[in-house]
Structure formats: C-alpha cells, structure tokens
Amino acid sequence: MITADMHNHTLASHGTADVAAMAAQAKAAGLAWFGFSEHSPLPGGFSCALYTGDLAAGFPRYAAEVLKLREKSAQPGADGPRILLGLELDWLPSRLGYMRELVAAWPFDYVLGSLHYLDGMSVGAIANWGPEVPREERFARFAAYFYEMASMVKSGLVDVASHPDFIKLRAVDDFHAWLGAAESRAPLEAAVSALSESGTAMEVSAAGLRLDFAEPYPAPAIMRLAAGAGVDICFGSDAHRPADVGRPFDRLASYARSFGYAESVIFINRQKRRLAF
Ligand SMILES: [Zn+2]
Ligand SMILES: [Zn+2]
Prior knowledge:
By secondary structure, this protein is α/β, with parallel strands linked by helices. The protein has a domain at about 90-275: TIM Barrel (Alpha-Beta Barrel). About 35% of the residues lie in helices and about 15% in strands. The protein contains 8 helices and 11 strands. The protein has helices spanning about 20-30, 55-75, 95-105, 135-155, 170-180, 185-200, 220-230, 250-255; strands at about 5, 35, 80-90, 110-115, 115-120, 120, 160, 200-205, 235, 265-270, 270-275. Strand 8 (about 200-205), helix 7 and strand 9 (about 235) form a beta-alpha-beta unit. The longest helix is centred in the middle third of the chain and has 20 residues, at about 135-155. It is globular and about 55 Å long.
C-alpha cells in the first residue's frame, strides 16, 4: 500500500482547498505521510494563467501554515499523517540564481523539479500544440525536454523529477510514436542516467490517470528504463482538490510493481527515506 503522497497543491496557487482541508483529507485517506508541494512563485517575465491567487504574495503565509502543521504532526501522540513541506519548482534554467535563492529561503523537506516551460514556452498550453506544429518539431521538443531534465537533475537543486513526461500532455499520440522511434533513446537515457547517478528520484504521478489518455506519468517505456537503471521512485497525486488526495494509489502501486518496484522514497529535511509499498 502506498502511504505517502508527496505532490499536492492548495488555494495559494490554483487548488480549490486550503492547507487545513487538504491535510484533513490526507488523514481521512489514511496516509502516513503528506507533502505539500505548492508551485514556486515565478520570477519576473514568467506568468501562469492558471494561478488564481497572487502566489508570490501568499507564499509566506502558506508556508508558515504548513510549517506549523508539520511541527504539530511530529509531536508524540499526534494522529494523522506526518506533514512535509515540499516545493514544486518551475525549472527555469535562465533564472538559476532566482531558483537557488528560493530553494534556500524556506526549510523545505524536498523539492520537486518540473519542466512546465521549455525554452520559455509553456509546455502545457494547448495553443503551443496546434496542427501547424509539424511532427519533426514535436519530436525535437520531446528530445530537448529530456536533455533539459538531465540538466535540471545535474543542478542538484531538486530531489525528484516530477511528472517526468509532462510534455505528452497535449501531444500524447506523437509522444508515444517518439517513444517507439530510435531517436528517443539518447535523450531518455541522458535523463535516466542523470537520475540514477545523482540519486534523484522520479515521480510516478496519478495526474495522468485523471486525463483523457488515462496513463500515469511517466509512460511504461520510461518506467522500464528507470527500473533498469535503478532509479528511485516517489508517488504523488498532484491533487489540486481534496477528492484527488492519495488517489488512485492502488492503480499507481500495481503500475509500479509491474516494473519490479517494491519501494518508494520520500524526503525529510532533504534526506531520502525508503518506504515499502
Ligand atoms: Zn506540475
Ligand atoms: Zn503539481
């Protein structure tokens, strides 16, 4: 059984519930570990149309609330899950200094690294994947994305590569075609060997299961490569509302088991801990 959900959001960015409501749901779901991993406030020049609140302004209050809960959850006799403070960091290689300062500014237990942007382009924006974008261009983006992931992992700034093939979001059929093509080998191996050499974990995310394509992040071909290279995995729901907390972790567990995984990792004060599932 998976007892840790390391990827969750709140009202501070574009979730639907506050810290207390998400923590209450984690308790109701029977989790032993619950990580808040709110998005990182964006530097000047970047914006995310999805965010409903002013993330930069609200972040200190949000983080203070999670830290208070974290302390309470670690007291002897406390019931409910142990709370962790994570961060879903937008990997923006042109803003290395900004990212370093942000990661150092709070006592994070762990940092998830996400490639929501590729060369400044929003990966998840449907407008960037219209029919005018030819397949060669899509394949080139997929390759660049995984080389960029290797750079992110080598930076030492992140503990986990989150939703590792997020780039399939708007182009899932082309992405699967690319996975089947020989040219995907080198970029995927660059990312996977960076993960295994650095001990950085790879997230296995339920977010993809909630979409039309109903496939976890990452796809089976990447799970196979990662398992073969001994890459650790970390589970996350990427819940933006209470109903998605810790779900559907039975499916995520059997998915990971089918590639030979029997344990996942979490991070406490940036130290890795292994959990059987
Ligand atoms: Zn994300
Ligand atoms: Zn997220």
